[in-house]
Amino acid sequence: MHQAAPRTLRFGANYTPTRGWFHHWLDFDLDEVGADLDSIAALGLDHIRVFPLWPVFQPNRTLIRPRAVEQLVALADAAAERGLDVNVDGLQGHLSSFDFLPAWTGTWHRRGIFTDPEVVAGQEEYLHTLAAALADRPNFLGMTIGNEINQFSDAPHPDPDRITPAQAARWLERMLAACERGAPGRLHLHAEYDAAWYRGGHPFTPAQAARLGGATAVHSWVFNGTAQRHGRTGAATEHHAAYLIELSKAWASDPRRPVWLQEVGAPAPLIPPDHAVRFAEATVAAALDCPDLWGVTWWCSHDVSRELADFPELEYGLGLLTNDRRTKPVGAAVARIAGDWRGREHRPAVRSTALALDAGGTATDGAAPGRAACAPGGAFFEAWAVLAARGVRPAVVLEEHAGDPARLAGRGITEVLRVHDVIRPPSPS
Length: 429
Hints:
Layout: E1 7-8, E2 10-14, H1 30-41, E3 47-50, H2 54-57, H3 66-81, E4 85-91, E5 94-95, E6 98-99, H4 117-134, E7 140-147, H5 165-182, E8 189-191, H6 195-198, H7 206-211, E9 216-220, H8 226-230, H9 235-238, H10 240-251, E10 259-264, H11 276-288, E11 293-298, H12 329-341, E12 345-346, E13 353-357, H13 379-389, E14 395-398, H14 405-411, E15 415-417, H15 419-422
Parallel strand pairs: 2-3, 2-11, 3-4, 4-7, 7-8, 9-10, 10-11, 13-14, 13-15
Antiparallel strand pairs: 1-12, 5-6
Helix pairs in contact: 1-3, 3-4, 4-5, 10-11, 11-12
């Protein structure tokens, strides 16, 4: 029977600079960065996720600015001085509703960012350069290719570069290989927003997320319809992160593949500020009840300054700390959780009951045309939420694996349920 290997959990924050947000790269101030990192380290966190702005670092396809790379390394060194490890997202890409693409990919130079040979070669060199610059830093965790860059490949983006799943896979493999060449043996991965799990026909697939790279990243945001349908205290809302963690395992080839809850936050007004502590405690507790969890990285470290315009309202208040570096109640809650787990092994009980998912296609092709069933309101999502509300602790297995004794035993699954076992269809009138 599968027994998850014990892990030491990681707790961190996605670093949002207090002065200038991610535009701080234009006026980089190491003293300001150091003050931000002091406030993060004071929470007892052990890592940060860092976001270079792609157009600032590579303003021309053949110009990767040496000074920008030096500043990234200086930030990583400042983090090391405070006991913080660093993951670097390369292709930004998309952040908090804003797109940051270099001029050499748009307008008069418009070409597909996933398929054009020159653009892809430029991306490859850029990721390799960042990884290589940090390869000798002991606190460098590795690269994430980019932040939810899959949003550029499909609707609802207003101007997507449409590709096929095969093209997405080739692009991911090439970008990950560039990171590995730059910094061999580090944790290199990719991260998508939840269309990869929930949107039928989306070119970035669950199989890619669960098989390519050193870990599976999930980004849990309950404004995707979950909190609207289930409310701020519903089991589906408080277990949404755990659901994505378990859903990812259905497609994983390795039953012990680590899953990183790389983004999770308490978005107002669906999660009001006076409810953020309960939401954080419930969400993180549910995630920690999932075997093979790598860690939790909260979005985000600091609130966005109200001096900056045009952000969606919810983006301003997602921090663990205020914009003047004061700890918020939700920051104190996450700090308490991190402190409680410091030095402890993470070995949750095996999830022996699984809900079988038929998302169409095959596990081999991973296309999952029926992914909409996994989204909030979909039959599979709602059945999983019912089980979670009953305290069942459901795992997820693909329907084609539900009759494979060896695969089930490898994950410790002894009971397989179907959606109709949980949610009975209405009787004919």
